[in-house]
Structures are given as structure tokens and as C-alpha cells.
Prior knowledge:
Elements: E1 2-5, H1 13-21, H2 29-48, E2 53-60, E3 63-70, E4 74-80, H3 83-93, E5 98-108, E6 115-123, E7 131-135, E8 138-139, H4 143-152, E9 160-169, H5 170-179, E10 185-193, E11 195-196, E12 202-203, H6 209-214
Parallel strand pairs: 1-10, 4-5, 4-7, 7-9, 8-9, 9-10
Antiparallel strand pairs: 2-3, 5-6, 11-12
Helix pairs in contact: 1-2, 2-3
Amino acid sequence: MTIKNLGLDNSILNQFMAELRDVNIQNDRMRFRRNIERIGEIIAYEISKTLNYQTIDIKTPLGFQPVSVPCDSIVLATVLRAGLPFHQGFLSYFDKAENAFISASRKYSEDHSSFTIELGYLSSPSIDGKTLIIIDPMLATGSSLDLSYQILLKRGNPVRIHVACAIASQYGIEVATKIFPKEKSTIWAGAIDPELNDKSYIVPGLGDAGDLAYGEKI
Length: 218
């Protein structure tokens, strides 16, 4: 499995990542959502370099011009709710893509010492023979990613799989490498952080991406 840590290279991506993490900036929800979206756009652009292309002739006012354009059938699969602005970044670039949505949430024990992942909803087209891009801004333990992938497989067998996250933990990366078929899968991350805390949040991370994007839940 290929791992792409885009934060290791100097680019404008790191500016958006810095603002996502900064406690003095991230509480501006509109700016937080837009930064998540912009990171999605950048990762979408990087993924576009790996797609299959075909040449078509474009008629201009003065003649014809051959242009190489992507020819893969793409399904964007997003884990709700923090994934929504991230998804929009990908959809801005892959505007012809089909879309899938998965509801996954942590259900904590009474003392909050442990949790399980609950899947509540799936809306997805067939992914058989298509390029699947799973979009989840935070890859922490990998548990929700695993369940999401397994339920998506009920819609077919993709020819290529990309997992896109803004921030991943090293632990989550290691789990993901065991889940996905190595020969056809790539993980794309804006940053890979070293650890998880006792509540399985990424450290240093950025906090709860869903709450920062849309407000606290009860």
C-alpha cells in the first residue's frame, strides 16, 4: 500500500493545515470548513495525477485541439459529518463523480473509557470496477474506516482505492495498511501525527473536526 504524506513537502497545503490546528483560528467555523475544503481540493488534484486518461479533440473557435482528460469512473465516499466540507473540495475537482455517504459515529461507554463504532446509514451507487475515494478528514484508530470500507464492498469491487484524510495518526495508518489490498490502494494525508491519547484522539491533531465545522453536539 502506498502512503502519501503531502505535508512533508513545502506547499500552500501547510498553511491551511496550520490554520486548522491553531486554537486562535480554528473556532471560526466558516474558515475551518473552507480550509478543510481547500485541503480536499489539493488532495483531489494530487490523486488526479494517478488516474487513467484519454485524448479527445476539442473544437475551439479557430480549430481543434487534442486534450488529455481523465476517463476513470469515480465514486467519492464520505464519512459524515466532518467529511462534508472535505467532500465538497473533492467534488469541486471531480465534478462528474458519483457520490456515496456513510454515517459512522462513536458510541461511548458510560464512563467514556471505551467506545464502539456505529454505522447508521449508507447511500451509495455501485462501486464495481470504479475508482473509489474514501473521504474522512481524521484517521484516528481506523475503526470507522474499516467498517465503512466493509459496507461499501457490498456495492461492488473497486478497481482502485484511495483513502484521503487531512490528518492521520501513525496508528491509523498501520491499521489501514492491514485493511486494504496493497496492490491497488493509496492513503493520502495532509499530515501524519505520532500518537493517540487515552480517548483515541489524534495528538497533536486539532480536536473534534465535526464540532469545529458545525458546532458541538449533545
